[in-house]
């Protein structure tokens, strides 16, 4: 395996899903958690001036989904043919759109205090409408795969981890009952976070504001 180094801030936000995928696959990586005072210098060294960035034997890759897709293939946590890969990509795009939607896309800045807003009110008025738009799409896909808590087949892929981490933040940073109308998404979260490798990592993870 190559030498992997992940650059991200010391929070979950967009980068944690990559850490989860490394833990799922039980693969080693250097978890470079950037402090805000270092960011000014490091930003200039990143391919797109943003993180997460994965360095693979010294070569830097940016964009969360590009990193996840690459690692999914490296760790055999992807589709097994081009059509399966495209079906997973379709769901990954849905998750990416959800994360970038109007309310969801701003919510972490509300949680960090970078946007002045009442957290509970913002969640209810801005984030929940995004959940209501995107969760049914994922719910339907999960049901079509046979109601086993996975988006494709019977083994966790990078897109399962991406979806589970994204929706679990709705519960962890929003409201515990926000996904009650989506039992298959709850089953996906349950399945991914009960994988022994992920469970072990999460048990010792420190809480972060987003
Ligand atoms: N489309 C990119 C977005 C990356 C992004 O927004 N990164 C933020 C942190 S979550 C960042 O680097 N912010 C610092 C900056 O832009 O200076 C992805 O999915 O990776």
Automatic annotation (TrEMBL):
Residues 81-210 form the GST C-terminal domain. Pfam families: GST_C_3, GST_N. PROSITE patterns: GST_CTER, GST_NTER. SUPFAM superfamilies: GST C-terminal domain-like, Thioredoxin-like. One of its GO terms (molecular function) is glutathione transferase activity. InterPro entries: Glutathione-S-Trfase_C-like, Glutathione-S-Trfase_C_sf, Glutathione_S-Trfase, Glutathione_S-Trfase_N, GST_C, GST_superfamily, Thioredoxin-like_sf. Gene3D superfamilies: 1.20.1050.10, Glutaredoxin (3.40.30.10). It comes from the Eukaryota. CDD domains: GST_C_Sigma_like (cd03192), GST_N_Sigma_like (cd03039). GO terms for biological process: glutathione metabolic process. Residues 2-79 form the GST N-terminal domain. PANTHER family: GLUTATHIONE S-TRANSFERASE, GLUTATHIONE S-TRANSFERASE GST-36-RELATED. This is Glutathione transferase. It comes from Caenorhabditis nigoni.
